Amino acid sequence: MSASAQAFNSPDCQQREHNMSALSGVQWRNKCLDGDVGPIPDVISYWDTPSKVILCISMAIFIALTFTGNILVLTVIIKNKHMQTKTNAFIANLAVADLLVAIVDMPMALITVIEGEWVFGDTLCVLNGFTVVFFLTVSVHTLMYIAVFKYITITHPMSKMLTKTRVGYMIAAPWIWGLIASSMGAFWLSDFTFKPGATQCGPNYPTEAPEHAYAFIIIFSCYFVPIIVMVGSYISIFIQIRAHLSRMKANTTQDHDVIVSQEKQMTVTLLIMIIVFFVCWTPFMVYCIFASAVEDKTTIPHELHALGYWLGYMNSVCNPIIYALRVPKFQDGYQKLFYICKVQKNLPINNEKSRSHSGSEIHMLQAISTTELNLKKSKSVFV
User: Fold this and answer.
1) Least enclosed by CB within 10 Å: which of 33, 48, 168, 196?
2) In what residue span(s) does the G-protein coupled receptors family 1 profile domain sit (predicted)?
3) Is residue 382 part of a domain?
């Protein structure tokens, strides 16, 4: 080993590299080789104050929106029996995965940015890395299975392929693969550790063959396979919808503007699904590929790490908006839920008689709302 390599691999130099300041990895390495490193600080701030404030506010907003949005999705599905369909079973599955991200993973990342270091210990670091891979994998693969489910139901509407048992398998599959993927990282191919400047624990930067293999598995199974399946499914769906609407134009007296509006709504929804997935997950995969390819791991910008993970988290914010708010039945469910809550808040509760009236009025309101929902036609053939 050369003298410069021995100097760089010395304990003091490695400790300083671990606690490097705002200097880039190359600058720090050169200073370490020159012996010009100065005292070792206890805690290094990788973010200046304005950046930390912006990042913390963004994280807090992400947590609040992810928690609220997915709780609303689950509440609407649970409280309305007519919403408990096969399609909504997938949306509920997605909401559970995204909700767990908001409850388990995001708060730890927020605290880590505030403190400037990992403060939860080695055991929770491994658990944090495990749950990050687990829940995000479940979320991504559920999006993929939603695309497959939509493809089958729209392009083969008379098919009996999607039985309750098979739908159950499709809902369970993301959790099974998420468990396998996170277990491979924790117990076999890699280790979950905290990297200086990161916002949470995760797999080691790949240096050995098993770690490179694990990085390839994650990149391929959690990005390329889902995006290929989603794009292929949604292109097929779009073609099928266009053909269906063309037949409607030729064989129906329905207003032409209504048909064009339906076509536009379907096109926008499909484009949003693909674009949001691409925007949220491409930076993370770029980060993973870069971390695997570069030899000097100290040159990996900590900003790229934070951007990759938190844009992935942002997908959990967007999911309840895309897969629920654009669905008319969910919009009706939200209106009914908020209206009932408002009535419950405003009705008098001073005596037994008023409480009896309150219960009767709420029951009547629920019955009327349910009747209205049942009478409404779906506004979109995509639902």
Assistant:
1) 48
2) 69-323
3) no
